[in-house]
Structures are given as structure tokens and as C-alpha cells.
Amino acid sequence: MVTGTGTGQSEGDYKEATITRWAEDTAKVVDWLAEEHDQDQVVLVGAGVGGWVMLHTAQMRPDSVMGLVGVAADPDFTETLIRPALEERNPEVLAEIESKGIADFDWAGKPYTMTKNLLDDGKRMMVLNKGTKGIPITCPVRLIQGLGDEEIPPESALKIADCLEGEDVVITYVKYGRHALEEDDADFQRIYTCIEDLERAVQRANYMINMIRPV
User: Fold this and answer.
1) Of 29, 71, 76, 144, which is the most exposed, with the fewest CB atoms less than 10 Å away?
2) Phi first, then psi: what are they for 146, rounded to 5°?
3) d(C-alpha 53, C-alpha 32), whole Å
């Protein structure tokens, strides 16, 4: 089983980046691992917007994605957080995005860039508006969320868990943990622990399937 991380650092024009494109690119990586390296089972790790991407990729490749680890995952953030905040506090920024296709602004005390393509695509790619068990993902999922997250509300992890169809969903809250969740070695160790837990869960599931399979 191979573990992958979100979308990583990529070349290209940021104005053309969208959730759809990132999810499709990630699905292509999953296919490549199966075709070129005989790795037909993967665990996806998505941090921030990567958590949104992994939810779509898991639906696109349900037979290949055997587990998900979300680190401060923020699906739908363009519609549930960014757009409402700009409409209320910075309508001029939203107008600039609409007219120029891109604009910079401060978000949670840090510089942030938003594009019209990402906003428009984000509206189409929402997943948390599907309701309870509305996201057809049944593989095991582990969510790590900081209680001190300055970018997204900590209860977002609860919303994700509620919307997932599968029942094997575990949330780990990190006291004082900020959005990046990379303050010390313990933050990275939590990710590794989740991956190991998912690998054991998949092994148990495969064992049970083999046990009940007709001879």
C-alpha cells in the first residue's frame, strides 16, 4: 500500500487551478501507481484544501483508495468561509476577483490569493451540502484537527464525519493545534499513526473478505 499527499508543489498558472483539476490530477497519480508500480491500494493524505481534493478523488477511484487522512481538511471553504467573509468585510476584493480573475487579501492574519476559477469551481464541487451520509465514501477515514485552527472552525471535522457514508471515521483533536499542524514532531507522528491504523484496518477487512469467500 502506498501513501500519497494531496497535490504538493506543482507547475502551472495558479489562475487555472481548481478543485476539479487537482482531483483529476490526483486520480491520474493513483492510476499511474497501479499501472506502473502495481500498487492498487493507496491511502491519501490531504492537508487543508488537499482534504477537499482527497474526498473527490476517493469517489473517483473507490476501488483504489483504501483510506483517507485529513489534516485540518477544509472542504467547501471557498463557499462556506471565503465568500461570506469577503461579502461582509471586503466586497471590493470580491469585485476584483470577479473583474480581474484574481485578488490578494488577508485571511487569518496571512496573505491569501483567490481566483475566480477556484471560487466558481468550488461552488460546483461542494461536498458538505449533501447531508448526513451524503458523501458516498465508505473506506476508513481519520481526521486530525487543531482546536486552535485560525483558518477553519474546529467543528468542520464533525461536519465531514457526519456527511461521510462510512462509519469507520475517527477524529483526533489537537489542543492548541493551529491550521498547519506542523509545530513539532508530535504533529507529524499523529499523521503516521493514522496511516498505520488505516493499513491495519484494511488488512483486517481483506482478511475477513478472504475468510468468507467461497472455496
Assistant:
1) 29
2) -80, 135
3) 18
From the list 95, 71, 73, 72, the residue with the least C-alpha distance to 83 is 95
Give the Cα separation of 189 and 181 in Å (integer): 11
**Cα-to-chain-centroid distance, residue 12:** 21
- Angstrom distance (rounded) from CA 15 to CA 113: 10
Cell output for 44: 491519501
The CA-CA-CA angle for residues 30, 185, 69, to 5°, reads: 30
Q: Which of 158, 59, 48 is nearest to 110 (CA)?
A: 48
- The 8 Å CB, 24+ separation contacts for 99-106 are 101/15, 102/14, 102/15
208 three-state secondary structure = helix
Residue 148 phi/psi, 5-degree rounding, is -105, 20
Q: How far is CA 91 from CA 97, 103, 120, in A?
A: 10, 12, 16
Tens digits of per-residue pLDDT, 79-122?
Answer: 999 999 999 999 999 999 999 999 999 988 889 999 999 999 99
Residue carrying C-alpha cell 499501472: 35
Where b means 16+ CB within 10 Å and e means fewer, 9-23 reads eeeeeeeebbbbbbb
Q: Give the Cα separation of 27 and 168 in Å (integer).
A: 23
Render 96-117 in DSSP notation, one character per residue.
HHHHHSEEEEEETTEEEEEEHH
pTM: 0.88
